[in-house]
Specification:
30% strand; 6-stranded antiparallel beta sheet; 30 strands; 22% helix; 8-stranded parallel β-barrel; binds (3S,4R)-3-hydroxy-2-oxopiperidin-4-yl beta-D-xylopyranoside; 632 residues
């Protein structure tokens, strides 16, 4: 890691003077990715790759993705056999790596996937990086995915395998890279200290509990929801075999940090293994009495084990998830659960959960509950169940929304609807996509979308706080934009739906929740400025920084002079995209000839190198053209 850290600094130094300054408003550019693994097979060797078993790996010039060489893999006798590469000394725990490989079959077609095998205490686990993707002999197919190691391991290898055949294939141009994490901002308010009406939580995987991610989670959030680790496929992959290896470390982290846990989810139609819905004869279940009894028995056994395993450590459960389909006359989703048991799976699930956990809050959770037809169907179901005595304590609103939908009025109607029932309400999976339709895709989040998003967070949190008497928890579906399910749903494209960006820094969305005055634009004809100061890299005695000046008024600047005072004795040694003068602690930066013009709503960014001793605190006050600025 030492070598990598040095590499990171070198790369930044080389890249930094090229950093473009935009006069238009733009998000602060992400740091340059660092490549830690490249296998191009151009030197006629296997470059350290090895088979997972007795298959044959050899350099090949038969086909190549780039250049003239690739790696051929033949003599496979099982689909899991394939090329693998040791990354134990390369991958660092808590860092998110993007791994990319090109694959092509020698003949015929199949699906290929990219995975990581890791072992701890001799026990192997297999993590999928890129799922089954069609590959042929007619051309190269790219498999790309992200991987974050969250545990200590003694064995770590990436590998490629196929889904159904054992034919020969080729791989080429393998890379692994990461974007260096930045230190978290410790000087900004904690979300959980600002919003005290209800716990604010985040959905997590193991990766969110370690290193900088773990610090960010602990600083801001009072509740966590394992995003996948408690689903049926994770906890009972085969009948009556319960595994808690994914979830246990997350619950232990929450316990150690005094953080509440929402359990998600006991019953769902997705991420439930196929065996659950097969009858005693191995055939898909149908609406027979036998199948119904078998299915309800499996359900009861599952809930007794999973809820019982955690007991009071999990205070809230999404007992059933997404059971409504408002397009059906009866409002019920036609899942196998419903077609085999009718409403009895819901009744059984709540009854058993209550028996196992008398003190827990039991929720029914769904999406699009802001849509009138959906919320009315959910309301009718919850009313009926409660009248029957089914212990539904709470309605969970997922709130997967976007920057232009839904309106606050519809969201208010959603909350208002359930007030007469006297149930708790929770916001369970909130994120705010920057996209307004599946046709859109941006290489980087546009500034206007990020601002729109900040207003949505501002308005929705204001609404939630207004309903503080009903709402008992608000959870965001992720910690930071580096790890969000919306990167692949509903289509693959980079999204940015959360409060913190891909390098864990607070976005305008964060300020929308914590202090909206920081993001509100001043009225027409006015002047104003906002400054974002960041340390983008740091090493003994030196650091690299970036300072962005934003014109938050409507009057354009024809030039700008930025000042601040260092409080830790730092000195700017070199600056680009501006001119610097320092006298004692006082630093003055003026625009260059080409970035002085900044329209209202626009910004300019300068980068610099500095020296420090003892400490490197960020300056807390800035002026532009003599006016004190908001500090973001
Ligand atoms: C998502 C997870 O975030 C993804 O990692 C997974 O691949 C699919 O499921 N509604 C839910 C959540 O109730 O369980 C889903 O979580 C998002 C939609």
């Amino acid at each position: 890691m030492r070598a990598l850290a040095r590499l990171a600094v070198t790369t930044l130094l080389v890249a930094a003077p090229l950093t473009a300054v935009t006069a238009a408003a733009s998000a602060v550019a992400d740091p340059t990715p660092i490549t830690v693994l490249t296998s191009d097979f151009e030197d006629g060797t296997v470059q350290g790759w090895a088979g997972r078993s007795a298959e044959t790996l050899a350099p090949s010039t038969t086909v190549a993705h780039g250049g003239t060489g690739s790696l051929s893999v033949s003599g496979r006798t099982a689909t899991w056999q394939g090329p693998s590469f040791d990354v134990l000394d390369t991958f660092v725990k808590g860092t998110a790596y993007t791994i990319s490989v090109w694959v092509r079959t020698a003949s015929g077609s199949d699906n290929a996937r990219l995975s990581v095998e890791r072992r701890t205490g001799g026990v192997a686990a297999y993590d999928q990086v890129a799922g089954n993707t069609a590959v042929t002999s007619g051309g190269w197919t790219n498999l790309t995915g992200r991987y974050t190691l969250a545990t200590d391991v003694e064995f770590l290898r990436i590998y490629v395998e196929t889904a159904s055949t054992t034919g020969a294939f080729f791989i080429d141009d393998v890379t692994a890279s990461y974007v260096p994490a930045l230190p978290i901002q410790t000087g900004i308010p904690s979300v959980k200290d600002v919003v005290t009406e209800f716990p604010v939580g985040a959905a997590i995987t193991g990766a969110e509990t370690v290193t900088e991610h773990g610090q960010l989670l602990a600083k801001h959030f009072a509740s966590v929801t394992p995003g996948n680790a408690l689903k049926w496929d994770a906890t009972e992959p085969s009948e009556n075999t319960f595994t808690y290896t994914q979830a246990d470390p997350l619950i232990a982290w929450a316990k150690a940090h005094g953080t509440a846990v929402r359990g998600h989810t006991l019953v769902w139609h997705n991420q439930t293994p196929a065996w659950v819905f097969l009858g005693a004869d191995g055939q898909p279940m149908t609406a027979t009495a036998e199948d119904k009894e078998l299915l309800l028995g499996r359900l009861e056994n599952h809930i007794r084990n999973v809820a019982g395993h955690y007991g009071d450590d999990i205070g809230v459960w999404d007992v059933v998830n997404e059971v409504i389909d408002e397009s059906q006359a009866d409002g019920m989703r036609r899942s196998t659960w419903f077609t085999v048991t009718g409403l009895d799976y819901i009744r059984t699930a709540f009854r058993v959960a209550r028996e196992v956990l008398p003190a827990a809050t039991l929720c029914i959770n769904d999406y699009n509950t802001n849509v009138a037809a959906k919320r009315d169907a959910l309301f009718a179901l919850v009313s009926q169940l409660r009248t029957e005595g089914v212990p539904v304590d709470c309605v969970g609103h997922q709130m997967h929304i976007n920057v232009s939908w839904p309106s606050v009025a519809d969201t208010r109607a959603m909350l208002q609807k359930f007030v007469p029932l006297g149930v708790e309400q929770q916001i369970t999976e909130m994120d705010v996509s920057i996209y307004t339709g599946s046709g859109e895709s941006f290489p980087a989040p546009p500034a206007d979308r990020l601002l729109q998003q900040a207003y949505v967070y501002r308005d929705m949190f204001a609404l939630f706080r207004e309903f503080a008497g009903e709402i008992t928890s608000v959870t965001l579906w992720g910690l930071a934009d580096d790890n969000t399910w919306l990167d692949t749903f509903p289509v693959t494209r980079k999204d940015a739906p959360l409060l913190f960006d891909t390098v864990l820094q607070a976005k305008s969305a964060y300020w929308g929740v914590v202090d909206p005055s920081k993001i509100e634009q001043t009225p027409p004809g006015t002047s104003g400025c906002a400054v974002t100061y960041r340390v983008t890299g740091s090493w003994t005695g030196g650091f690299q920084g970036e300072v962005k000046v934003a014109n938050t008024g409507t009057t354009a600047w024809t030039g700008w002079t930025l000042t601040w005072a260092f409080t830790g004795g730092q000195t700017v040694t070199q600056l680009w995209n501006g001119t610097v003068a320092q006298s004692g602690t006082a630093v003055t930066v003026t625009n260059t000839s080409w970035n002085g013009a900044v329209a209202g709503g626009g910004s300019a960014t300068a980068g610099f190198l500095g020296s420090w001793t003892g400490g490197n605190p960020a300056p807390t006050a800035f002026t532009v053209n003599g006016t004190a600025c908001t500090v973001l």
